[in-house]
């Protein structure tokens, strides 16, 4: 039934090559998506470099997918039809039978099906996904803008809305990169007094353009906590920076009962003393991404408030270049492949 192009790595750690693959019809409960755009996320490194268990090569990463349904497998509910605009993010389906799934808490399913890990992902013209992975893209949001919301967007949007922060509370966003630049805009739109924290005075203007009410320069990490306390203390810090030293440095900037929500990954341990947590009753927690419904909520909120990721786009044929630019931290701010 024809072929499609995909950017794959033949073996762990190899460079990307664009190859032709045979199209296969979607199995029961699955749909085939004609991919229009796919974000390049730093987490793709875990698939490309064989860091996660159970990976198979050749491998096509990509878990920030946006496109249109091209084919519907049998048993797929008729709410999904050919032509529908859909996105698929980090949440690429869940097992449905484990305890969290039976409790309706699908995102912490231990058998979570992440595109690029459980099945080939979106660095391709075509991808087949289970229907429970689908999020509807609203009118007014382009595929390029929708794609990064499936991971970078939903992670920050959901991290904020699942925190204890209420409108008027002070919320600090650590890092204003691929995740943080969206987080600042979400925090402002959610009605929080928003503090952006990043390294260097040069980012202050960008933080203000995003709507941040305050900017804290974290060049000297030891100065961050006192800067937050001078603003009254943060009720929530959303840590998007992949830097444990910078994350740990925010804890003493939390208000009593303040909450540190960690979404930035670093192999280095956090350094937090129990004493920093106990008397002020502070909370430190991790936050995963969000389900397909959460992605849909993120996209609807983004469309309603005019929030778009700042993207750099390259055609699928230049997947390797896009991936290398992301790795080198050169992409401003989300790298997106287009077909
Ligand atoms: Zn991601
Ligand atoms: Zn499950």
What this model shows, in words?
The structure is a single chain. By secondary structure, the chain is of the alpha/beta class. It folds into 2 domains: 3-151 and 290-338, Quinone Oxidoreductase, Chain A, domain 1; 163-286, Rossmann fold, CATH 3.40.50.720. Helix content is 24%, strand content 26%. It is built from 11 helices and 15 strands. The chain has helices at 44-48, 99-102, 143-146, 152-161, 180-189, 203-209, 224-230, 244-248, 274-278, 292-305, 319-327; strands at 3-9, 16-22, 30-40, 65-72, 85-88, 126-130, 135-136, 170-174, 193-198, 214-217, 234-239, 254-262, 283-286, 311-315, 334-338. The strands form 3 sheets. Strands 3, 4, 5, 6, 7, 14 and 15 form a 7-stranded mixed β-sheet that branches. A 6-stranded parallel β-sheet has the order 10-9-8-11-12-13, sandwiched between helices. It has a two-stranded antiparallel ribbon with strand order 1-2. Strand 9, helix 6 and strand 10 (214-217) form a beta-alpha-beta unit. Helix 4 crosses helix 5 (180-189). It is globular and about 65 Å long. The two termini are 19 Å apart. The model has no long low-confidence stretch (mean pLDDT 97).
Write the layout of secondary structure elements.
Blueprint (H helix, E strand, L loop, with lengths): L2 E7 L6 E7 L7 E11 L3 H5 L16 E8 L12 E4 L10 H4 L23 E5 L4 E2 L6 H4 L5 H10 L8 E5 L5 H10 L3 E6 L4 H7 L4 E4 L6 H7 L3 E6 L4 H5 L5 E9 L11 H5 L4 E4 L5 H14 L5 E5 L3 H9 L6 E5 L1
Parallel strand pairs: 8-9, 8-11, 9-10, 11-12, 12-13, 14-15
Antiparallel strand pairs: 1-2, 3-4, 3-6, 3-15, 4-5, 5-7
Helix pairs in contact: 4-5, 4-10
The structure holds zinc ion (ZN) (2 copies).
């Amino acid at each position: 039934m024809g072929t499609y192009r995909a950017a794959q790595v033949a073996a762990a750690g190899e460079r990307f090559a664009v190859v032709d693959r045979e199209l296969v019809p979607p199995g029961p409960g699955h749909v085939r998506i004609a991919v229009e755009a796919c974000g390049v996320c730093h987490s793709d490194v875990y698939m490309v470099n064989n860091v996660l268990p159970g990976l198979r090569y050749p491998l096509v990463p990509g878990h920030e997918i946006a496109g249109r349904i091209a084919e519907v497998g049998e048993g797929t509910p008729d709410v999904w039809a050919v032509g529908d605009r859909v996105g698929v993010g980090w949440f690429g389906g869940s097992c449905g039978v484990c305890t969290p799934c039976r409790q309706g808490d699908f995102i912490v399913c231990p058998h979570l099906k992440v595109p690029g890990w459980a099945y080939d992902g979106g660095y391709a013209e075509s991808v087949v996904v289970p229907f429970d992975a689908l999020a509807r893209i609203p009118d007014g949001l382009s595929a390029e803008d929708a794609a990064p919301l499936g991971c970078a967007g939903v992670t920050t949007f959901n991290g904020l809305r699942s925190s204890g922060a209420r409108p008027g509370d002070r919320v600090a966003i650590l890092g204003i990169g691929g995740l943080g630049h969206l987080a600042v805009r979400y925090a402002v739109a959610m009605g929080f007094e928003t503090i952006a924290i990043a390294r260097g005075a040069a980012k202050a203007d960008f933080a203000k353009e995003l709507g941040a009410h305050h900017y804290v320069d974290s060049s000297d990490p030891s100065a961050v906590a006192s800067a937050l306390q001078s603003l009254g203390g943060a009720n929530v810090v959303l840590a998007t920076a992949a830097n444990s030293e910078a994350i740990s440095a925010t804890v003493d900037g939390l208000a009593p009962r303040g909450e540190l929500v960690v979404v930035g990954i670093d192999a280095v341990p956090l350094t937090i003393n129990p004493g920093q947590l106990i008397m002020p009753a502070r909370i430190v927690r991790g936050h995963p991404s969000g389900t397909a419904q959460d992605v849909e909520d993120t996209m609807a909120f983004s469309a309603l408030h005019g929030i778009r990721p700042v993207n750099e786009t390259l055609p699928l044929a230049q997947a390797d270049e896009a991936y290398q630019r992301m790795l080198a931290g050169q992409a401003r701010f989300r790298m997106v492949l287009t077909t």
